[in-house]
Amino acid sequence: MADVRITETGFDPLAELARFNAAHRSAGGIVSFLGQVREESGDVEALELRQYAAMTLPGMTALAQMTERRWPLIGLLLLHRYGVMHPGDPIVLVAAAARHRRDAFEAADFAMDHLKSESWFWKREKTAGGWRWVEPRSGDHADLARWRA
Amino acid sequence: MTARLVFLGRLEDLAGVPEMDVEPGMLATVLTKLDPALAVELLSERVRLALNGRLLGEAGDVVLAAGDELAFLPPVSGG
């Protein structure tokens, strides 16, 4: 049973992983990915992720189910931040627990690629000039295409 | 009882509001009552529509009933 959450108030990645690891003692391997707000040399002061309650969490739950159908997992965590964030803040944490490491690596990679390019989040950045919406990155769609072969 | 339009991402800035209550009816009729510049953006092929949380294939003949929520979703840029 996957643990899928969104939070506006931030999260502690180490505490989340410690809890996840402890809950899946039969796993031989746990792979995790942490995405954080990049420190830019430019003048980005903050970024904001907006979500849409009717679709964002339901979409992530469907992604978790798709991931669990594709790999034999013992546990799966999808945790995504929304709201206003600053450089260094954690944005997303994905963890996959499996008997064998290969399944855990691939499941975490798959879930992260889909979270990045298919989840219902919209990003804007704050600079000295004010807030500006960010367009999607074409590389995200190339990452996604790897799984459609 | 009204229907509701929800504007996500940059569409919220264009609309000036995150959501708007409208009279139920055909979407085409609803859109004629909006700022034309906004209506054009809402009908862009890059904008997807979701009715009550479910993605629509075609915007063409959407009819809004009382209590419906129609969301306009520009390309996502998450994570």
Architecture overview:
The complex is a heterodimer of chains A (149) and B (79). By secondary structure, chain A is of the alpha+beta class. Chain A has a single domain (3-148), classed as Molybdopterin biosynthesis MoaE subunit (Aldehyde Oxidoreductase, domain 3, Alpha-Beta Complex). Chain A contains 4 helices and 8 strands; from the N terminus they run E-H-E-E-H-E-E-E-H-E-E-H. Chain A has helices spanning 13-23, 56-70, 101-118, 138-145, and strands spanning 3-7, 29-36, 46-51, 73-81, 83-85, 90-98, 121-127, 130-133. In chain A, strand 7 (121-127) and strand 8 form a beta hairpin. In chain A, helix 2 (56-70) runs antiparallel to helix 3 (101-118) and helix 3 (101-118) packs antiparallel against helix 4. Chain A is globular and about 50 Å long. The two termini of chain A are 27 Å apart. The model of chain A has no long low-confidence stretch (mean pLDDT 93). Chain B is an alpha+beta fold and 79 residues long. Chain B has a domain at 1-52. Chain B is 24% helix and 30% strand. Chain B has 3 helices and 7 strands, in the order E-H-E-E-H-H-E-E-E-E. Chain B has helices spanning 10-15, 27-32, 36-42; strands spanning 3-7, 19-22, 25-26, 48-51, 54-55, 63-64, 69-73. In chain B, the strands form 2 sheets. In chain B, strands 2-1-7-4-5 form a 5-stranded mixed sheet. In chain B, strands 3-6 form a two-stranded antiparallel sheet. In chain B, strand 4 (48-51) and strand 5 (54-55) form a beta hairpin. Chain A binds chain B through residues 35, 49-50, 52, 54-55, 58, 80, 91-92, 112, 115-124, 133-137, and chain B through 6, 8-10, 12-13, 50, 52-53, 69, 71, 73-79.
Strand order of the largest sheet of chain B: 2-1-7-4-5
- The percent range for helix content of chain B is 10-25%
Most extensive interface, chain pair and sizes? A-B, 26 and 18 residues
Number of domains of chain A: 1
Number of helices of chain B: 3
CATH topology of chain A: Aldehyde Oxidoreductase, domain 3
Amount of beta strand of chain A = 25-35%
Main beta-sheet strand count, sense and barrel state of chain A: 4 strands, mixed
Number of helices of chain A: 4
